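CATEGORY: protein folding

GOAL: derive structure tokens
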Amino acid sequence: MYNKLIFEISKPGRKGYTLPENDLPAKHVEDLLPEKYLRQSPPQLPEVSENEVMRHYINISTKNHHIDKGFYPLGSCTMKYNPKVNEVTAAMPGFRNTHPRTPEEYSQGALELMYELAGLLTEIAGLESTSLQPAAGAQGELTGLLMIRAYHDKQGKPRKKIIVPDSSHGTNPATVTIAGYQSVNVKSNENGTVDLNDLAKVIDEDVAGLMLTNPNTLGIFEDQITKIQQMMHDAGALMYMDGANLNALLGIVRPGEMGIDCVHFNLHKTFSTPHGGGGPGSGPVAVSKRLEPFLPKPRVVKENGRYRFNYDYPDSIGKVHSFFGNFGMLVRAYTYIRMHGPEELRAISENAIINANYLLSKLRDHFELPFDSPVMHEFVLSASRQKAMGARAMDIAKRLLDYGFHAPTIYFPLIVREALMIEPTETETKETLDAFAEALIKINEEIKTNKEIVLDSPHSTPVKRLDDAKAAKEIDVCYKE
């Protein structure tokens, strides 16, 4: 293997790393790097005991909030518990040690997993085919719009606009712009869903498609979806569905059955692969028959019981990512799906919906509910009443930290003033939901009786209240050697 390095234990007369025999000409690392980059003396590292090292990192970890530590109600993020069996599977040597350049004949297990995962996601979506290439939800969005562009170009009728609801995720209009389209806004009605009259006004011959999240960012199912897709298709436009809220639909309804032409999956949301520092993400894209020719290549195909990469797709938009992104995320998602099976996948969404509605029932009398429609897996409250008493959504979020809870998403979606966007997911217990609701109710009472304790919060965290305005205006970023 050209990429393999063998480590040799340091001994007198030996150098550290060498390339293996019968491969590239043997060279030591010292011979490959310029002299100025080589150490002239050993690094000055502290000598500490194992328990000191463990205490150091455990102490750091306790200062961070993560799903293994506590409830993470971030709306629209689906911060569900990540089963540890996923990690066991991803750590199997055949998956962990494989390299993207490994020849196909030595990668059959990995290729089989990718082939089967694409098939499972296609079935879940009720569509024609799936690409695993996109490495994030936003990249999945871009991939979808590039395929929509390729479709219209192939028809000889290039188009310029994409319609985006006013309740959409912020990535949607950003993706529209990056894809070279003009973003056209459509308003929500009094129920929190797409206003069909306003939609009719913005549809014209230049509209390439509609980017729709369903359930939408308010947690409300677009009950006029069949009319919406008919209006778009009658105009020759396509339907893109943002799959961020797919955790509400598993086994209940499939995007393809709603007339969707393209949908991306957030594996790190719906299928329990980790969120972490902006990644590692994964955003596979499933498409209808009309978009199938334009999927990224290569695709994994099965022929005569063997798996290989197929590049023979002349209408493909090409590669959107080197290799197949974060392969470990694909292994984790595959494990999760196979572990549950069809019936349990449906139970995931049913329990997510039950948890959200239970939590809403405990809070609706204490906060304003801007759209009083049935909700799915998440819901949006407004702290407008609390703001009238002198405390903002931000203050409530800060105070929640003192009660040991991560704050929900705030000030989003933008159409709700002082928004508190809460998604409990299916993995939280009734006891946890009760404790979270009780904390919010107590904070509401504090605003009435002891407002300063809320305005000065948090009091129990390593970092206290920051001056947000100063932090935004006077960014202090420094690098130390």
Remarks:
- DSSP finds 16 helices and 14 strands in the chain.
- The two ends are 36 Å apart (CA to CA).
- The CA atoms of residues 117 and 334 lie 6 Å apart.
